[in-house]
Specification:
Shape of chain A: globular
Number of strands of chain A: 0
Chains: A mainly alpha (314), B mainly alpha (317), C alpha/beta (429)
Low-confidence stretches of chain C: 1-24
Mean pLDDT of chain C: 85
Oligomer: heterotrimer
Helix content of chain A: over 70%
Strand content of chain A: under 5%
CATH architecture of one domain in chain A: Orthogonal Bundle
Largest interface: A-B, 113 and 103 residues
Shape of chain C: globular
Radius of gyration of chain C: 23 Å
Radius of gyration of chain A: 24 Å
Largest sheet of chain A: none
Order of helices and strands of chain A: HHHHHHHHHHHHHHH
CATH class of the largest domain in chain C: Alpha Beta
Number of helices of chain C: 19
CATH topology of the largest domain in chain C: D-Maltodextrin-Binding Protein, domain 2
Distance between the termini of chain A: 10 Å
CATH superfamily of the largest domain in chain C: Periplasmic binding protein-like II
CATH topology of one domain in chain A: MetI-like fold
């Protein structure tokens, strides 16, 4: 699906070079061959009709309902779950939130979660793009077999690894420290696979050759050509990894101590009683989701435009 | 391009050295770039895999430690257990009930999101919200929905005049409920992956198709889907591997976490947990874990071949 | 780069593993040099679950012993705590200095006395009820844990439903009516159900089985480890009796304990009685908020029963064993347990505490101002010998509960076919 050869065929070498240069520096007005017209996708510039919005509305309703439901229960009291929940929020949310802050080290856990998620997302993107670049564009012996091996590693069940991994962490002295949570997640097979598959199509070989002929080393080729081309997928990978790390419970629960928890582990403490007040638990769950929603609002616009930038090849 | 105006004598020696450097760079760089992953994998993936393989060949109590070497006896025992095959059946059933709708619905949603919508960011980020809802909340919500006697779904079925479904007693019903929980979480995620790939399709292909007279649906089936082939394969493989390891959702489906009184919804990962942490039989748990690993590899491979074939049909290559 | 160091650590751990692989059984951690408790600053970690009521007690201990700092680690549920304990015992490190355990885990943990410090001490002799200490002592006299709370059981009932059925409602008459045997309890139930109030007598077969089986001297295993669950007539007897009462006499509400339906069942008043240990009162109060009429009768079928109760153990992995032992002994002293009881309702297992004024004067407003302190103190003293529980108790009991649920809640099997499945499960262990 490389478009540069297509351009070369249809419009000649000069246009191909121009397109290649434009790909290198995607920010700027009048990109692509249709300046001034925004990418509209399969439907053309025609605005979608009521049916599309209706379908989307239904999907959004189903997606947002559980969050709203959590907020509803969190704003009433413990009987809400067993007696049937009214459709409107009650006034109890702030009181429940106060209970959450009192019972668990919420802010410390949030700080830990932010740290772990950010570091993990950054390192996953960095290492996965690097590895993806190698697998997708560089020719080396055993690349096919190694890629299959990478994919196969996703098949190793996590439950299998709990005891041996814990032993390793104990020997390294990291049990209870955030390193035990960060290090195992520093690069994922999913990330490598994802970037490989994306870069294969999104990064034209000619671009790399061109820049190598200019005298760039491998790492410079990666930095000036590979990474920018991968940016849309990298942004998505960063978002996915951040969210997945934020909501991860299983491993942090096993290896961390409640004095140094991440957010899901801390939230679990709200259930530490014979009688569990689920309105408080769900209030806590909503509070834990708010930072992610903020991230969505902040990064969402960037991400959406990033996805579209990746399309500038037609 | 190389600047030939540089003084030749100095540049010849520099050229020779830099040529060797660059050749070494080309040879070594790929391995260097993929090494972080493999180094980490050696620690967090390979070591546990080999350790568990070693454990599976012994009589090994989780607390008591290792006893005799018994070779493949654990494997033989486990393969003869009806609970093992029950777990295999449950796993495959839940996997199919979740993965197939996931891929199909994600494709459709992505197609709708691909259009020129107003408030694009809102719609596109909105479908990802289920992914951020805390697992404890998801468990509570769906348990409330699918409770046998007082659940919301059964109450609504009652309103319409249908019989209540026994979500926690019936095997297939429990699979449906759990698949719903899984789909809820992952459909939006996969939809965005498809969307990213769809946005990368050059527009002139669609223009050409429209000129040829193909309607929207035809375009979707004959143009979009085949051009998404690598992504479809990617999603198929990752959701296969994930779907065969489903653990969290079935575990929160009831209060004991064992998969139902008759193991109606016990998946293989839950069975591993029961053998290892419930019965303390680490050897048998490891044997099942290895069998699951081999099963995943096999099925992912099958899925890959199948998806490649399907995506090829109707595509132009 | 830190890689060389990590590689060294990794090969070291691999070597350790291979060394450990030489003999059967895990390397028990070497006993730490039992330093006498001194004045050097030390940080102790304490791991509990649910609610022990220790928050203010820990602060008190810290002020009494300024060189000690305590880090309190709480797991949400007993299952999580058990999984955590298992993983860290298996890994050989990571346990806290004091680990709380449930009475049900003792049968298995007593198989590995080397993993726990022997807490036998003349200073604490006679502190607890006999059956409490007995459960934590191995055959060699090694005391694994100090008792904290216990779960003496009584019968909680909904007097509003009793009234609707024409039965007596005050505590003494109800205790008389329920009688002291299981048969009299079931007979009262038959009378209640005949009045057709729309409610059932008890919540589930599993709950009743729990009460009945805890009174068997030897249920599933012999002392030497052989499994007798399949042949033991007492087990089959209890099983049949419970299911007959449930299905034939229709006394059950088919609500598995702790399930969503069970919680909702309190609000919808689906059952009139339930066997309740002291810690269950808070659960009932929470689930039945707004429902009037719950009360406690000072009686338990079969005499007395105990459900639950915890101990504090000192793992041998720990580095501050003497200090930990001292803290555990202090926390489980009668005075401290009373304070915990006042804070969170954890019922003491210490003999002196059962006679204390603070305890005996306790009443519970939700339960019609019942003198719960007095009631449970008497119930605690009525508990008979501890049933013997071997290492496979947990797994076999789970299988039994599943068998009962299949018949009672799921209604998928009848008693005979469910029993057959139970036998298969037991054989596979």
């Amino acid at each position: 699906m490389s478009s540069i050869p297509m351009i070369r065929q249809t419009a000649g070498e000069g246009a191909a070079k121009t397109a290649a240069k434009r790909l290198n520096r995607p920010a700027g007005p009048g990109r692509g061959r249709t300046p001034g017209r925004s990418r509209a996708g399969a439907g053309g510039t025609r605005r979608p009709g009521a049916l599309s919005y209706g379908a989307l509305g239904a999907v959004l309703l189903a997606s947002l309902f559980p969050l709203y439901w959590s907020f509803l229960v969190g704003s009433h009291d413990s009987t809400a779950l067993s007696r049937g929940i009214p459709l409107l929020p009650g006034g109890n949310f702030l009181a429940n939130a106060a209970k959450v802050f009192d019972s668990i080290p919420f802010w410390k856990a949030m700080g830990n979660s932010v740290l772990v998620s950010t570091v993990t997302a950054a390192s996953v993107v960095a290492f996965s793009t690097l590895a993806g670049f190698a697998f997708a564009k560089l020719r080396f012996r055993g690349s096919k077999g190694l890629l299959v091996f990478v994919i196969a590693t996703m098949a190793v069940p996590t439950q299998l690894g709990v005891v041996p991994l814990f032993i390793v962490m104990a020997k390294l002295g990291w049990t209870g420290s955030l390193w035990a949570v960060i290090i195992p997640g520093v690069v994922t097979a999913f990330g490598v696979f994802w970037m490989t598959q994306y870069l294969r199509d999104a990064l034209p070989d000619e671009l790399i050759e061109a820049v190598r002929m200019d005298g760039a080393s491998m790492i410079q080729a990666f930095w000036y050509v590979g990474f920018p081309a991968a940016r849309p997928a990298a942004a998505m990978l960063a978002l996915f990894t951040f969210v997945a790390t934020w909501t991860n419970f299983f491993w942090p629960f096993i290896v961390l101590d409640p004095s140094n928890p991440t957010l899901p582990v801390a939230l679990q403490l709200l259930q530490a009683a014979h009688f569990v007040d689920y309105s408080v638990v769900l209030a806590g769950a909503v509070l834990a989701t708010i930072p992610l929603l903020l991230l969505f609002i902040a990064a969402g616009r960037q991400l959406v435009s990033g996805i579209m930038q990746g399309a500038v090849k037609g | 391009m190389v600047d030939d105006e540089e003084s030749s004598s100095k540049s010849v020696r520099r050229l020779a050295f830099s040529q060797r450097l660059s050749r070494w760079d080309v040879k070594v760089s790929p391995y260097l770039y993929i090494s972080p992953f493999f180094l980490l994998f050696a620690l967090t993936g390979l070591f546990p895999l080999l350790y568990t393989g070693w454990v599976s060949l012994h009589n090994w109590n989780l607390i008591g430690g290792q006893c005799k070497f018994i070779g493949l006896e654990n494997f033989g025992f486990v393969l003869g257990q009806p609970y093992f095959w029950n777990a295999v059946g449950n796993t495959l059933s839940i996997f199919l009930l979740s993965s197939v709708p996931q891929v199909v619905l994600a494709l459709l949603i992505a197609a709708v999101l691909d259009a020129n919508l107003r408030a694009k960011t809102f719609w596109r980020m909105g479908v990802l919200v289920p992914f951020v809802v805390a697992p404890v909340a998801v468990g509570l919500i769906f348990n409330n929905l699918f409770a046998d006697q007082f659940g919301l779904v059964n109450k609504m079925l009652d309103l319409v005049g249908l019989d209540p479904v026994r979500w926690h007693s019936d095997q297939l019903a429990s699979h449906l409920a759990i698949a719903t929980m899984v789909n809820f979480r992952w459909i939006g995620y996969n939809a965005l992956i498809f969307l990213a790939a769809m946005q990368a399709i050059p527009r002139d292909v669609f223009e050409a198709a429209t000129i040829d007279g193909a309607g929207r649906v035809r375009q979707f089936l004959s143009v979009t889907v085949p051009m998404l082939r690598p992504t479809v394969i990617f999603v198929a493989i990752t959701s296969t591997i994930g779907g065969l390891q489903i653990f969290d959702e079935p575990r929160v489906f009831d209060q004991s976490g064992l998969g139902g009184a008759d193991r109606q919804w016990q998946t293989l990962t839950m069975y591993i947990w029961e053998l290892g942490w419930g019965q303390r039989n680490f050897g048998r748990a490891s044997a099942v874990a290895w069998l699951l690993f081999l099963m995943i590899v096999l099925i992912a491979l099958l899925n890959f071949l199948l998806t490649r074939r399907i995506a090829d049909q109707g595509g132009r290559k | 780069m830190k890689f060389p160091r990590k590689l060294a650590a990794l090969s070291a751990s691999a070597a350790c593993l291979t060394l450990a692989l030489s003999g059967c059984g895990a390397d028990a951690p070497k006993a730490a040099p039992s330093a006498e408790t001194g004045k050097e600053p030390v940080t102790l970690t304490l791991a509990t679950f649910n609610e022990f009521g220790y928050e203010s007690l820990l602060k008190e201990y810290e002020s009494l012993n300024p060189n000690v700092k305590i880090q309190h680690k709480k797991a949400a549920t007993t299952n999580e705590a058990r999984d955590n304990l298992t993983t860290r015992l298996a890994a050989g490190s990571g346990l806290s200095d004091i680990e709380a355990i449930e009475v049900d885990w003792l049968s298995e943990l007593k198989q590995y006395p080397d993993q726990f410090v022997d807490l036998l001490d003349p200073a604490v002799e006679g502190r607890w009820l006999d059956w409490k200490t007995e459960a934590a002592t191995t055959q060699d006299g090694h005391l694994i844990g100090y008792g904290t709370d216990s779960g003496p059981e009584a019968v909680c009932y909904n007097s509003a439903l009793f009234k609707a059925a024409g039965l007596p409602t005050d505590r003494e008459s109800v205790a008389q009516m329920l009688g002291t045997t299981w048969d009299s309890y079931f007979d009262a139930g038959k009378k209640f159900v005949a009045a057709k109030t729309g409610a059932a007598w008890f919540d589930s077969a599993g709950a009743i089985y729990q009460g009945m089986s805890n009174q068997l001297e030897k249920a599933y295993e012999n002392e030497d480890g052989t499994v007798i669950a399949a042949e033991n007539p007492a087990v089959k007897d209890v099983y049949t009796k419970v299911l007959n009462a449930s299905t034939k006499d229709n006394l059950t509400a088919h609500l598995a304990q702790w399930s969503n339906d069970w919680v909702a069942g309190f609000q919808s008043q689906k059952f009139a009685t339930t066997l309740c240990p002291g810690w269950m009162l808070g659960v009932i109060e929470g689930n039945a908020t707004g429902v009037k009429g719950w009360d406690v009768a000072n009686v338990f079928p079969g005499g007395g029963g105990n459900w639950g109760g915890s101990y504090l153990t000192v793992p041998a992995q720990g580095k501050h064993q003497a200090e930990a032992k001292k803290l555990a002994a202090w926390l489980t002293a009668p005075e401290q347990q009373i304070k915990a009881f006042t804070a969170k309702g954890t019922f003491p297992s210490q003999v002196k505490a059962l006679d204390s004024e603070a305890l005996l004067g306790q009443t519970n407003k939700f339960f019609n101002n019942a003198p719960t302190g007095k009631i449970f103190a008497e119930r605690a003293k009525a508990v008979g010998a501890t049933p013997f529980k071997g290492p496979k108790f947990f797994a076999i009991n789970d299988a039994m509960q599943q068998a009962l649920t299949r018949v009672d809640v799921d209604k998928k099997d009848d008693a005979e076919s469910s029993w057959a499945k139970f036998l298969t499960a037991v054989k596979s262990l």
